[in-house]
Amino acid sequence: MTMQTRSWTVENAAWAKARPRLSVLIPFFRDDACDLLRALDKQTGREGVELVVLDDGSGDEALAARTAQTVREMRMPAAFVRLASNAGRSKGRNILTSHARAPHYLFLDSDMAPDSPAFLADWLALIAAKNPSVAFGGFTLDLTPVTRERALHRALALRAECRPAAVRGLEPAKSLCTSNLLVRADVFAAEGFDESFKGWGWEDVEWAARVGRSHEVLHVDNTASHLGLDTDAALIGKYEQSPANFARVVQNHPEIAQAFPSYRMARLLKRVPLAGFWRPALKRMALASVLPMLPRVAATKLYRAALYAEALT
User: Fold this and answer.
1) What is the pTM of this model?
2) Contact 27, 57 (CB under 8 A)
3) For the chain, how many structural domains are there in total?
4) Beta-carbon neighbour count of residue 4 at 10 Å?
5) Average pLDDT over residues 280-303
6) What is the 3-state secondary structure (H, E, C) of 152-170?
7) Which of 48, 112, 138, 151 might form a disulfide with 21, Cβ 3.0–4.6 angstroms?
């Protein structure tokens, strides 16, 4: 264990002598990533891969102990970095890269599960064949449990986010997120995540807008399942955290933002009077599990756009 100013680090026995080609970088905050770590350790093609997992200030001693023990038991070279306080989504990922040693990074969210036993091997093959600047593997809900309390998030994800590479590639920068994202180290050194983003959302879109101006954003079908869908209330709560981040993207990248349906709807809703009356009704409709899913999805999108309308100048 190596003591640092605001963190401590555990490295397993395989770490010191490894010469990796790919660094898998997994941040978490109060989520247990141990099942994902063990799943990756069983993957075909894990040779040439190292893993760095970061606890972004969870403050959970039992969780930290479980994660450290899992890292020690892994055959793959692995390190566990624990921060004393929460750094946030952007800074946490930037910190992860400071511990990575490979020429490519794979950002993988802690609530993901590879859809293929050759998930890592396929990423290594892509690196060998194309040395991509940026590549997004996509995500599915193939392994995700179906639950009533997470039905809204599932419906939204299936409609807008679980798309094949051929479709995502039509709008490459817009269709990217950090859940399963490959980045070449030199590209990230020039364009890291903007740490001024606070709370939830849009830091990945802003990063993709910057990087997409000078680098090809490749889309491939090397998916992982998103196991950590939010409850209906938690999802709405995240949307309520995101208007300031959305406005920052609009300000910095207006040419990109204008292509977003949420932006166009927000501009329209900004002109609708009495938002204090109809916006709460949209929220109640989105959360009403007794309603059919189609109107709930529509209400959710309108409610999110109404929140963004307030943040627009």
Assistant:
1) 0.92
2) no
3) 2
4) 11
5) 96
6) HHHHHHHHHCCCCHHHHCC
7) 48
